[in-house]
Specification:
- The chain is 61% helix and 0% strand.
- The longest helix is centred in the N-terminal third of the chain and has 19 residues.
- The chain has six helices and no strands.
- The chain is flat and about 55 Å long.
């Protein structure tokens, strides 16, 4: 990543946040909570992907239609966010895969539970 890429990324982020600040206060609050949630559990390509700008587009359309923010996303904002990222690769997925690799498991397999049986032992 060159210095030019970093500067360009900052310009894009500032323009994005200017769009957020132009939203009504209730939309801004919900957006910031969604952003905080998505940065914790969200997809690995969140910072450079289309998700956050897409949310702002969606909110701008809601404002233009005269709808309240909770009419758009519902009462459970976290569930709405989960629906947006349901098919995306998340940091939790990366972590689970790294644990599986450390334990010698196949990709996509979950680590065994503490049932007392040795991992990999066949059930009789």
């Amino acid at each position: 990543m060159s210095i030019h890429d970093i500067i360009e990324g900052k310009k894009q982020w500032r323009a994005h946040m200017a769009r957020v600040k132009a939203l009504p206060p209730d939309y801004q609050i919900v957006y910031k909570e969604m952003q905080r949630y998505l940065f914790k559990v969200g997809p690995t390509d969140l910072s450079d992907g289309p998700l956050l700008p897409g949310i702002v587009d969606f909110f701008e359309e809601g404002v233009a239609a005269g709808k309240g923010v909770l009419e758009l996303v519902g009462e459970d904002v976290a569930a709405f966010c989960d629906g947006l990222i349901k098919d995306s690769r998340t940091y939790a997925d990366v972590y689970q895969e790294s644990l599986g690799a450390k334990l010698g498991a196949k990709p996509g397999a979950r680590p065994s539970t503490r049932s007392g049986a040795k991992p990999g032992a066949a059930e009789k």
